[in-house]
């Protein structure tokens, strides 16, 4: 398994690989100031062979992760699920998605490509999660929630059943979402209120 990215997020990816009995072969990062991560050496060139040898993108920022994914041109097929996560057999996970320790994904949920289901997050039944979404630690989505591409659900946020959240939305830490949220909105508070729009 190769890892693209040597930030803090890559440390968690390394531990997921370890939890399922895998091994990390090579870690790549553009930042030449980073020489190692969790006792693994980091190299700063990216050989073509890595495109076809089980590489996972370990970048937490949704927009950057999307831009890096374009380099791979659909060649990443691997899904990583921590051994301590709970994922229903009826869940569909897109390529490049990672599921961290103690995350729970329940029946008939569909998760897109290159998503992050972070530590202790909960995604209930029949949710639909778009590509490049990040569900932060301890965030909870009730049943039937729909989330558009690139949105970030902050740590400890709660979304009630049947809510639709648009593309590239930012939900602040601890927010409680009780109504639909349009594209590009930033939402904070309990109940959640839109404070700005960004593109």
Automatic annotation (TrEMBL):
SUPFAM superfamilies: Trimeric LpxA-like enzymes. Pfam families: Hexapep (PF00132), PglD_N (PF17836). One of its GO terms (molecular function) is acyltransferase activity. This is Sugar O-acyltransferase, sialic acid O-acetyltransferase NeuD family. NCBIfam families: NeuD_NnaD. The record marks 126 as: Increases basicity of active site His. PROSITE patterns: HEXAPEP_TRANSFERASES. Acetyl-CoA binds at residues 134, 155. The active site is at 125 (proton acceptor). Belongs to the transferase hexapeptide repeat family. Residues 3-70 form the PglD N-terminal domain. InterPro entries: AcTrfase_PglD-like (IPR020019), Hexapep (IPR001451), Hexapep_transf_CS (IPR018357), PglD_N (IPR041561), Trans_hexapeptide_repeat (IPR050179), Trimer_LpxA-like_sf (IPR011004). Substrate binds at residues 7-9, 60. Keywords: Acyltransferase, Repeat, Transferase.
